[in-house]
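wait is this the right file?? whatever heres the structure
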């Protein structure tokens, strides 16, 4: 993989470009993809964003979401875009398997793949160009650096700014995670100068709940959360019947894993959701407990030091039992908390 700065001189020639990201894109995945989309279009490239799956409704305010292809529903159009592409930007994931059903098509594409990502252990042999940096808060910050370092600060308009802000804000937990550097705040200052309406972004993302989602959260906190104070740990296990009862759709469970971290003493929060075809796990920690290693070791997953995920084909009860066992095995690390 050659360094991303090798393509800066090539940006001047118009190309056919596909931008893709991980399945069930989160705020950073959508924000970085659409921020890059609006930037590359200004340079005269022909750009298509292809998401491996659908995404949460609360991203639909982002300019350009109507043009994003959902590969599960628009497979033929997605394949045509991939076949025609000169470049495929792969944002916010480290292994092609994170694109689910797109993996094979992406792997066989004749286009050059370009990685921009902040996860550990990227598949570097799969990319012609790229940058992987786990010290970056978000892929949106890396797309911002890409625009700046290629000498295109003047292309950051209100649209690009609001997409990138959505990504960096959500991936830093509204600027509270330790990974939020001075550079992140300097980036936001520049985005403000370019017309960013940050209050609008917060409202669009966080003040758009429908009643069923709010009541679902109430039910989860009341009935589905267990606390293990001895281990500084909280676990939420959501059976599929809850998702059906409360009409839960993509995105409605986003952020739920963070709630128990507001309880005094809790340093590890886990959620296991029975999605029918699989049990999806999310892990969040504070301080020195490494959930990336934890997710890799026990739950076929990965992610970052303080935020990771995984999945399992075992039953909800089995995954819960496995989690409790894993928690017990990690008692020493869980009881030692440091800022
Ligand atoms: P979330 O819990 O929000 O789904 O994901 C948290 C972080 O862990 C994200 O950075 C995401 O990319 C990563 N992650 C989530 N699930 C998986 C997984 O199954 N495998 C890997 N390698 N990473 C995951
Ligand atoms: Mn990210």
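ok assuming it is, sequence goes like this
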């Amino acid at each position: 993989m050659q360094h991303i700065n090798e393509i800066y001189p090539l940006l001047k020639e118009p190309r056919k470009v596909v931008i893709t990201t991980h399945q069930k894109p989160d705020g950073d995945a959508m924000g970085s993809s659409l921020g890059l989309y609006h930037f590359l279009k200004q340079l005269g490239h022909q750009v298509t964003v292809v998401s491996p799956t659908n995404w949460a409704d609360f991203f639909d305010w982002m300019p350009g979401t109507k043009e994003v292809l959902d590969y599960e529903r628009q497979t033929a159009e997605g394949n045509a875009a991939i076949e025609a592409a000169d470049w495929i930007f792969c944002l916010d994931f480290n292994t092609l398997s994170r694109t689910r059903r797109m993996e094979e098509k992406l792997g066989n594409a004749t286009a050059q793949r370009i990685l921009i990502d902040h996860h550990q252990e990227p598949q570097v042999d799969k990319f012609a160009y790229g940058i992987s940096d786990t010290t970056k808060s978000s892929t949106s910050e890396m797309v911002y650096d890409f625009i700046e370092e290629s000498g295109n600060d003047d292309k950051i308009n209100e649209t690009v700014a609001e997409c990138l802000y959505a990504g960096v804000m959500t991936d830093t937990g509204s600027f509270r995670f330790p990974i939020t550097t001075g550079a992140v705040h300097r980036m936001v200052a520049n985005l403000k100068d370019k017309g960013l309406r940050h209050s609008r972004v917060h409202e669009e993302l966080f003040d758009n709940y429908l009643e069923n989602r709010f009541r679902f959260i109430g039910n989860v906190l009341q009935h589905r959360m267990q606390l293990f104070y001895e281990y500084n740990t909280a676990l939420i296990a959501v059976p599929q019947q809850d998702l059906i009862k409360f009409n839960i759709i993509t995105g409605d469970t986003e952020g739920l894993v963070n709630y128990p971290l507001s309880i005094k003493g809790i340093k590890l929060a886990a959620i296991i959701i029975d999605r029918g075809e699989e049990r999806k796990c999310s892990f969040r920690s504070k301080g020195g407990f490494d959930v990336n290693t934890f997710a890799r070791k026990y739950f076929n997953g990965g992610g970052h030091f303080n935020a990771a995920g995984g999945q399992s084909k075992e039953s909800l009860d089995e995954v819960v039992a496995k989690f409790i066992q894993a928690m017990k095995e990690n008692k020493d690390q869980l009881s030692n908390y440091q800022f």
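The CA atoms of residues 141 and 184 lie 7 Å apart. so i think its the right one actually
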